[in-house]
TrEMBL record:
Residue ranges annotated for the Enoyl reductase (ER) domain, each copy included: 10-328
Places the protein is found: Cytoplasm
Name of the featured protein: Zinc-type alcohol dehydrogenase-like protein
Entry similarity comment: Belongs to the zinc-containing alcohol dehydrogenase family. Quinone oxidoreductase subfamily.
SUPFAM superfamilies on file: GroES-like (SSF50129), NAD(P)-binding Rossmann-fold domains (SSF51735)
Quaternary data: Homotetramer.
Species per Swiss-Prot/TrEMBL record: Roseovarius pelagicus
Keywords of the record: Acetylation, Cytoplasm, Metal-binding, NADP, Oxidoreductase, RNA-binding, Zinc
Annotated transmembrane regions: none
Amino acid sequence: MKAIGYSAAGPTGTLEMVELDQPKIGPRDLLVAVKGISVNPVDVKLRAAVEPDGAVRILGFDAAGVVADIGDEVTCYKVGDEVFYAGDVTRAGTNAEYHAVDERIVGCKPACLDFVQAAGMPLTSITAWEMLFDAFRLPEGGGEGQTLLVIGGAGGVGSVLIQLAKALTGLTVIATASRPETQDWVRKMGADHVVDHRGDLAAQVADLGLAPSHVAALTATDQHWPAIIDLIAPRGQIALIDDPETLDIKAAKPKALSIHWEFMFTRSMFGTDDMSTQRDLLNRVAEMIEKGTLQSTVTQRDGRLTAEALRHAHTRQESGRVIGKQVLGGF
């Protein structure tokens, strides 16, 4: 089968077309004919810095496609089903014609989206959902009278997080965005207030008369850390997804803050007993999309999957200027 991978960590030019055997599936696995994929920050981080464990590494986590085969113990899907999912960082990725994935982290594709558009939703939806309901431990419908600050609101995760917070909780949402187009985007996603993270973040939030009880730090957490500590309410909660080199954790003590690290691959990496939680939440996301209470965050469609198209998508992702999500079709 065709696939795109890299044999040595480095710049986007390391991505190349390769021919591989079709993946073998385990008892709980689906073999999916991939019809759409998306590019996430994790793709470019791994390609740039992590050497392959073997001859070549295939990246790609988000995918939508059609079930082509199933393992002996699969119970939730059959051949021909249309699915979407975010994969497993410990396995070969979705930048390929066929992909093997555990059924417990797979959802039914939203019927109202084509495969390419559907591929833009899983990873960011899982991440945002787990931040709200696992990290912050908010109950659905909870958060009335409290405020969520989303730093980096126009990115893939922020775009979904704003929507989920407005649809499923009572939180007031402040989103940060620094350009007119990104500010317009986060308002479209449902943000109640918008501030510029390139300015004095703490002062801008204070000017709103709000002290966020929850902060989702989605980008440049180390740079924004002093402002977060300053603006957050006592006994507030912070969740982050990026990889800051250092954080002054003791600065959180006077306000008795709780700090959470969100990593959506944890359940699949460790085979946790609740892996199927991700299947359930993806099915909820699909229902919300079909009902119109959650909208697609795809803003860039890059045509069919080729090495050249994928390189361009990686370069765009590295620019830090992607709004929402960018997606490609299958081979």
